[in-house]
Amino acid sequence: MSGRPGVILDRDGTIIDVVRDAELGVVTTAFHPDQIRFLPGAVEGMRHLAEAGFTLAIATNQPGVAKGQIPWSALERTHAALLRRLQEAGVPVAAIEVCPHHPEGGPGGDPALVQVCGCRKPAPGMLTKLAEALDLEVAATWVIGDTPSDVEAARAAGMRGAMVFDPRRCELCPLREGPGGMGARARPEIAGPRIDSVAEAILATWARAAR
Ligand SMILES: [Mg+2]
Ligand SMILES: [Zn+2]
């Protein structure tokens, strides 16, 4: 075993909120720096984990480029702003991995990105790549996400799965029974309403393991 313990976080619905257009009733993901809205407890929770010695990284599926919804440059600008704002808040993020692929694509999408890839979660590609690049100890690394596919990706990479789960969020209606109702592969070891509560649980596990 080598390396440092890591925490790899999902972006949308985990660190930052989705973007709701109330007029059109449409929910999208942030693709402009002005659309970055940190979810309650996200910055605080990430800071606690970093202070405790976890290397932080982000792994995010962003099929909007393959679907022709957003240009790659918009994503890059948004991620640069996201990392800068986290840094300013005392949260160092070592790397961000993006899967820009989608199996079907969409009108105007980049055809080179329309493919079944090994990085789109629930595949473990981004997590494995981050573990290698950042020298993470895989078995001691947690993935925090908001969907079963984040947890499945963690399992597939040999990492531990945690889920932020707020039953009041309508986007999660299929999950309103709670994480306990999910199949074994997608069931998180830890679930809580926000990153700060999930972080406390991870740190408690960590403290127990260290004794
Ligand atoms: Mg998400
Ligand atoms: Zn991919």
Automatic annotation (TrEMBL):
<feature type="binding site">
    <location>
        <position position="146"/>
    </location>
    <ligand>
        <name>Mg(2+)</name>
    </ligand>
</feature>
<dbReference type="InterPro" id="IPR004446">
    <property type="entry name" value="Heptose_bisP_phosphatase"/>
</dbReference>
<feature type="active site" description="Nucleophile">
    <location>
        <position position="10"/>
    </location>
</feature>
<dbReference type="InterPro" id="IPR006549">
    <property type="entry name" value="HAD-SF_hydro_IIIA"/>
</dbReference>
<feature type="binding site">
    <location>
        <position position="119"/>
    </location>
    <ligand>
        <name>Zn(2+)</name>
    </ligand>
</feature>
<dbReference type="Pfam" id="PF13242">
    <property type="entry name" value="Hydrolase_like"/>
</dbReference>
<feature type="binding site">
    <location>
        <position position="101"/>
    </location>
    <ligand>
        <name>Zn(2+)</name>
    </ligand>
</feature>
<keyword id="KW-0119">Carbohydrate metabolism</keyword>
<keyword id="KW-0479">Metal-binding</keyword>
<dbReference type="InterPro" id="IPR006543">
    <property type="entry name" value="Histidinol-phos"/>
</dbReference>
<feature type="binding site">
    <location>
        <position position="117"/>
    </location>
    <ligand>
        <name>Zn(2+)</name>
    </ligand>
</feature>
<dbReference type="GO" id="GO:0016791">
    <property type="term" value="F:phosphatase activity"/>
</dbReference>
<dbReference type="GO" id="GO:0046872">
    <property type="term" value="F:metal ion binding"/>
</dbReference>
<keyword id="KW-0862">Zinc</keyword>
<feature type="site" description="Stabilizes the phosphoryl group">
    <location>
        <position position="60"/>
    </location>
</feature>
<dbReference type="GO" id="GO:0005737">
    <property type="term" value="C:cytoplasm"/>
</dbReference>
<keyword id="KW-0963">Cytoplasm</keyword>
<protein>
    <recommendedName>
        <fullName>D,D-heptose 1,7-bisphosphate phosphatase</fullName>
        <ecNumber>3.1.3.-</ecNumber>
    </recommendedName>
</protein>
<dbReference type="GO" id="GO:0005975">
    <property type="term" value="P:carbohydrate metabolic process"/>
</dbReference>
<feature type="site" description="Contributes to substrate recognition">
    <location>
        <position position="120"/>
    </location>
</feature>
<feature type="site" description="Stabilizes the phosphoryl group">
    <location>
        <position position="121"/>
    </location>
</feature>
<keyword id="KW-0460">Magnesium</keyword>
<feature type="active site" description="Proton donor">
    <location>
        <position position="12"/>
    </location>
</feature>
<feature type="binding site">
    <location>
        <position position="99"/>
    </location>
    <ligand>
        <name>Zn(2+)</name>
    </ligand>
</feature>
<keyword id="KW-0378">Hydrolase</keyword>
<dbReference type="InterPro" id="IPR023214">
    <property type="entry name" value="HAD_sf"/>
</dbReference>
<feature type="binding site">
    <location>
        <position position="10"/>
    </location>
    <ligand>
        <name>Mg(2+)</name>
    </ligand>
</feature>
<dbReference type="InterPro" id="IPR036412">
    <property type="entry name" value="HAD-like_sf"/>
</dbReference>
<comment type="similarity">
    <text>Belongs to the gmhB family.</text>
</comment>
<feature type="binding site">
    <location>
        <position position="12"/>
    </location>
    <ligand>
        <name>Mg(2+)</name>
    </ligand>
</feature>
